[in-house]
From TrEMBL:
This is Oxidase. GO terms for molecular function: oxidoreductase activity. InterPro entries: FAD-dep_OxRdtase, FAD/NAD-bd_sf. It holds the Pfam family DAO. Keywords: Oxidoreductase. Coiled coil: none annotated. One of its GO terms (cellular component) is cytoplasm. The lineage of its organism: Bacteria, Pseudomonadati, Pseudomonadota, Gammaproteobacteria, Pseudomonadales. The keyword Oxidoreductase applies. Residues 8-328 form the FAD dependent oxidoreductase domain. It comes from Pseudomonas poae.
Length: 350
């Protein structure tokens, strides 16, 4: 196999994870081609609440990976100043939230200092000051533009039809426009990863888990942090757009995205002062790629030489750190132990 910078790497998928991989690979001088079936950030990235959330309840096999997420985004900001990440912190008002090392316990007065529009603040809440959120579509385009500036090529509206192989080695990607030769192929197409892996004879259990994403037009300065409680999960952009995330319940009429958006709007009115009007601009279902055991799948496919997979939830939170670590593995041919819990071979029967 070719070494280091001589490798030709094809990244399949131009969501935020594929974009981060492409940027980090190109940053190291690798020859990169991104292949995307639709447009940049056209999949679940476009419907992501985009919370850079480092907390996790219960045992966490990827605690080290998750813990590096914030620092990695700060590093990216120094390289790509146009990312425009909002480091507002995250305020958890739920009485069921357990205290963590990353979050500070606040009094009611401190809560109101952060969020003066709350009508009924609890006696105590947890505040993770280091957390933030981003515009996932904008960040993905910025990463892709950064990769292109470093020599990467991007092929949009280009569907993968199969793979060219020699014995057990992947040597190219088959598209309607022809074969793209490659030394390494990276599967970073979100919920499409299972289908791509099937083409290579490997079964990966990645579930398309639905969630509701809502965007409202409303008054500016209603929400200053990212607020999470049993009634709502909301944040506001610098431009004043209010964003909300809700669980998908079922396909009943009363649980369609527009109906949930209206119920959530009512909850926001009941929780916040100053909501003169709140109108849904967008309410839709996003399909999150969640591996069957909830742990990211990152690494080379077993029994297939030259095929690397990268799929996870939360993709936005982990995109920066995974993009850097996975690109290091691909270029240096040296496994990083931080990614060991994520290896795809855990799903392969012995």
């Amino acid at each position: 196999m070719k070494k280091g910078l001589e490798k030709r790497v094809v990244v399949i998928g131009a969501g935020i994870v594929g974009a981060s991989l492409a940027y980090h690979l190109a940053l190291k001088g690798t020859r990169v081609i991104v292949v995307e079936a639709q447009g940049i950030a056209s999949g679940v990235t476009a419907t992501s609440f985009a919370w850079i959330n480092t907390s996790h309840s219960g045992p966490d096999p990827i605690a080290e990976l998750r813990g590096a997420a914030v620092d990695e985004y700060h590093r990216l900001e120094t390289q790509l100043p146009g990312l425009d990440i909002r480091w507002t912190g995250a305020l958890s008002l739920s009485t069921h939230t357990s205290e963590t090392q990353q979050a500070s316990r606040l009094s009611r007065a401190q809560i109101l200092d952060l969020e003066p529009n709350l009508k009924n603040p609890p006696e105590h809440a947890l505040y993770a000051a280091e957390e933030g959120a981003l515009d996932a579509v904008h960040v993905t385009h910025t990463l892709i533009a950064g990769a292109q500036a470093l020599g990467a090529k991007v092929l949009k509206q280009t569907r993968v039809l199969g793979f060219k192989t020699l014995d057990t080695k992947v040597t190219g990607v088959e598209t309607a426009s022809g074969v793209i030769d490659a030394d390494i192929v990276v599967l970073a197409a979100g919920t499409g990863v299972s289908g791509l892996a099937d083409m290579l004879g490997v079964s990966l259990p990645v579930q398309a888990s639905p969630s509701i994403f809502i965007r409202y037009a409303t008054q500016p300065n209603l929400v200053h942090t990212l607020i999470s409680n049993t009634q709502m999960e909301v944040r506001q952009t610098a431009e004043g757009t209010l964003l909300a995330a809700e669980d998908y319940l079922d396909d009943a009429a009363e649980n369609q995205p527009k109906a949930i958006a209206q119920r959530t709007a009512n909850a926001i009115r009941s929780e916040l002062h100053g909501v003169v009007s709140i109108e849904p601009e967008l309410a839709c279902v996003g399909l999150r790629p969640i591996p069957a055991d909830g742990i990211p799948i990152i690494g080379y496919l077993p029994n297939v030489d030259g095929a690397y997979v990268c799929v996870m939830h939360p993709g936005v939170a982990l995109a920066a750190v995974v993009g850097r670590l996975a690109s290091d593995e691909i270029i240096d041919d040296k496994a990083n132990p931080v990614l060991d819990p994520c290896r795809p071979d855990r799903f392969i029967q012995a």
